[in-house]
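WARN retry 2 of 3 for item q-0093 after timeout on previous attempt; input resubmitted unchanged.
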Amino acid sequence: MAQFSRIEVAQVMKETGMVPLFYHPDVELGKKVLKACYDGGARLLEFTARGDFAHEVFAELTKYAIAELPGMIMGVGSVTDAVAASMYMSLGANFIVTPVLREDIAMVCNRRKVAWNPGCGTLSEIAKAEELGCEIVKLFPGNLYGPKFVKGIVGPQPWTSIMPTGGVTTEASNLQDWFDAGVTCVGMGSQLISKKILADRDFDGLQKTVAQTLATIKKVRG
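OK item q-0093 returned
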């Protein structure tokens, strides 16, 4: 069962400006990644459930976060249907992120008042997601659309909140472009939690990278 309401989740996304994305089948490595992100200042993590038995890994990470990392909001990404969404919510997911807009997922998340962030790529999809109760839409893949697309949407629709995933880096110039365009927050995976960091088990380096990225976001926001 979710520990945080959908409004609380949306607020933390807006306040911190960043959602780290991560997947690995090793639970113990996952715990260290989670703690490094937490110690660096992140208060959300999207576990991109792409592997076999990913739900078992997520369950253990969520239990760890509840016990050891107060205020850490755990969510699940790469969710493709309502059955999977329901399963992950029963395991404690506080938000559900999807690669596409699916009404069946919207229904089960809204029924439990759990935040959901559908992947959208057109104004019509964004409008539909908002009609279905979405607070923050996911722009995916972000690198194919870019900041100009965001600016074109939020200009006439200032109520729209967008989180691009893909095409977002830790570089100040990249973050400046996105936030100047009007994004609410950004999703960041391998650009933040790189294969090298995982291979080297450089959790101190990850903590510093997370802290620096959050500081950059705060700065570019003014």
